[in-house]
Amino acid sequence: MEGEEYTASVWAKSLTLGYPAETLLNIWWLDAANNYLSGAWIQGPDVDNEWVEAVFPTLVAPAGAANLDFNLIGTRLHGDVNDPRYPNSVNGVAYDDLSLVAVPEPMTLCLLGLGGLMLRRKKA
């Protein structure tokens, strides 16, 4: 895991009755004994009241990382949740189907590409 790059995405929508909300991913990198190494708040895209795929910037595991822990959080961008004009307003974001995927190393991608070319050549 140390030094590996990861991409994170999740389906999200705002719960703020017509107001956009901010998607936030909180990452904690842990060592093999689950001791905290480092962490970060990563801002994703703003979302409205329709489901959209929110893609976060690439994450890189620090030295010594063996595990990670995370939280998905959403905050309201505009307005006041206590405003009486919005009695059913909720401060946050609904999330579904989180995906956290390791980005292949360049050499792995190169080998996969060469393998595909070899298979294509044998069929001809």
Describe the 3D structure:
By secondary structure, the chain is mostly beta strands. It has one domain (5-123). The protein is 15% helix and 47% strand. It contains 1 helix and 7 strands, in the order βββββββα. The chain has one helix spanning 106-123; strands spanning 5-14, 21-30, 36-47, 52-55, 59-60, 67-76, 93-102. Strands 1, 4, 5 and 7 form a 4-stranded antiparallel β-sheet that branches. A 3-stranded antiparallel β-sheet has the order 3-2-6, with no helix packed on it. A hairpin with a 5-residue loop joins strand 2 (21-30) and strand 3 (36-47). The longest helix has 18 residues, at 106-123. The model has no long low-confidence stretch (mean pLDDT 79).
Overall shape: it is: elongated
Total individual domains: 1
What percentage of the residues does DSSP assign to strands (E)? over 45%
Question: How many DSSP helices?
Answer: 1
Q: What characterizes the major β-sheet?
A: 4 strands, antiparallel
Oligomer: single chain
Question: How far apart lie the N and C ends?
Answer: 40 Å
Cα Rg: 20 Å
The count of β-strands is 7
Based on helices, strands and strand pairing, what is the structural class? mainly beta
Helix content: 10-25%
Rounded mean pLDDT is: 79
Task: Sketch the topology as an H/E string, one letter per element.
Answer: EEEEEEEH
**Uncertain regions spanning at least 5 consecutive residues:** none
